[in-house]
Write a structure and sequence with these properties.
Elements: H1 2-9, H2 11-42, H3 44-66, H4 68-101, H5 105-128, H6 130-160
Helix pairs in contact: 1-5, 2-3, 3-4, 3-6, 4-5
């Protein structure tokens, strides 16, 4: 039991757990679309779910494209989530450092556990911003492409005269 408590109080063990969690999340984010595509070919239910998600994305993209205020509000929401994520990250690191500095194993465990939970919450907030940021970037790319196409057309018309 003492070795178990000693392992739980080890800062390197907690960092390893956190890094492993991040690695698993990155790998799952990479594999999920491919697995969804594979399963959508197999499962009708999965296919209808993916079609519904695509349709919701198109509706959201249309709403953001047509309403600049909605783009601003989405950007503010992304910033709010990022600030909350940073707050939870700082809280997690503070608890981890406090646990590492503690000489009492029980205090270290009491600090490491909520620190880890706080880190997971921070990661959830960070991850929840990705879809909105992707949509905003798609709108920007479309606007820049349309503007550059319009500019090249006007240049061609000027040169033709």
């Amino acid at each position: 039991m003492d070795s178990f408590i000693k392992d739980l109080t080890s800062l390197s063990w907690w960092f390893t757990v956190a890094l492993a969690g991040i690695a698993v999340n990155i790998v799952s984010a990479y594999l999920k679309p491919r697995l969804d595509n594979y399963l959508s070919r197999i499962s009708v239910k999965q296919r209808t779910k993916r079609d519904s998600e695509r349709q919701q994305k198109v509706v959201r993209l249309t709403l953001l494209t047509e309403n600049p205020l909605e783009q601003v509000m989405t950007g503010i929401e992304v910033l709010r989530k990022l600030v909350i994520g940073v707050m939870y990250s700082v809280f997690a690191v503070t608890l981890w450092i406090g646990g590492a500095a503690s000489r009492d194993p029980l205090v270290a465990i009491v600090l490491f556990a909520p620190g880890s939970v706080s880190f997971v919450i921070a990661f959830i907030y960070f991850h929840s911003t990705t879809s909105d940021v992707t949509l905003i970037n798609e709108i920007r790319k479309a606007k820049y492409a349309a503007a550059s196409k319009e500019k090249s057309l006007s240049q061609n018309a000027t040169e033709a005269k």
